[in-house]
Amino acid sequence: MQNAIYVLNGPNLNRLGKREPEIYGRTTLAEIESMCRNEGGSRALEFRQTNHEGQMIDWIHEAIDDGAAGIIINPAGWTFTSIALMDALKMFPGPIIELHISNIHRRESVYHNSLVSKVATSVIAGLGANGYRTAVAAMKEMLV
Ligand code: DHK
């Protein structure tokens, strides 16, 4: 969608609310989507989640081809493993906010080396579900 902000969510985030609540909290992805739409106001928002890497790559290509204004992405586990995801994001001309519910830098070392951070405009980590609201607000500021 032209000029939309794409909010893209990676694997296992469909389980938010019951997935390791001590780390990710109890807010569901549907509740997070509502938070994003409230914060976004009149700005068009594409809010999606997938457990399939190829689908995520296709959505990034869609964002590129459709002239999306910006991408907010929680890449989840792909953050640390996917060169394909990094390469796709490299092609996006607009601002990219990498988002993590948890502070990945305070967790196990496997969560410390983000490939996405090498192409992201900014990174938000550790604000819990509110990080999504912060990311939408920050993206709107970037797009003024
Ligand atoms: C979510 C995941 O699923 C993990 O694989 C990431 C991220 C952290 C988050 O905090 O939102 O490492």
Report the β-strand fraction as a percent range: 15-25%
CATH topology tier name: Rossmann fold
CATH architecture: 3-Layer(aba) Sandwich
Present as ligands are: 3-dehydroshikimate
Please state the average pLDDT score: 97
CATH superfamily annotation: Dehydroquinase, class II
The CATH first-level class comes to Alpha Beta
How many β-strand runs? 5
Radius of gyration (Å): 14 Å
Elements, N to C (H/E): EHHEHEHEEH
Weakly predicted, low-confidence segments: none
How many independent structural domains? 1
Largest sheet: 5 strands, parallel
Q: Which term fits the overall shape? A: globular
Give the number of helices: 5
Protein structure class: alpha/beta
Function: Catalyzes a trans-dehydration via an enolate intermediate.
Subunit structure: Homododecamer.
Protein name: 3-dehydroquinate dehydratase
Binding site for substrate: 74, 87, 101-102
Report on this model:
It is a single chain. Helix content is 35%, strand content 17%. It has 5 helices and 5 strands. The protein has helices at residues 21-24, 29-40, 53-65, 83-90, 130-142; strands spanning 5-9, 45-49, 70-74, 96-100, 122-125. It is globular, with a radius of gyration of 14 Å. The two termini are 18 Å apart. The model has no long low-confidence stretch (mean pLDDT 97). 3-dehydroshikimate binds next to loops. Residues 12, 74, 76-77, 79, 100-102, 104, 111 line the site of 3-dehydroshikimate. Pfam families: DHquinase_II. Its EC number is 4.2.1.10. Pathway: Metabolic intermediate biosynthesis; chorismate biosynthesis; chorismate from D-erythrose 4-phosphate and phosphoenolpyruvate: step 3/7. The record marks 19 as: Transition state stabilizer.
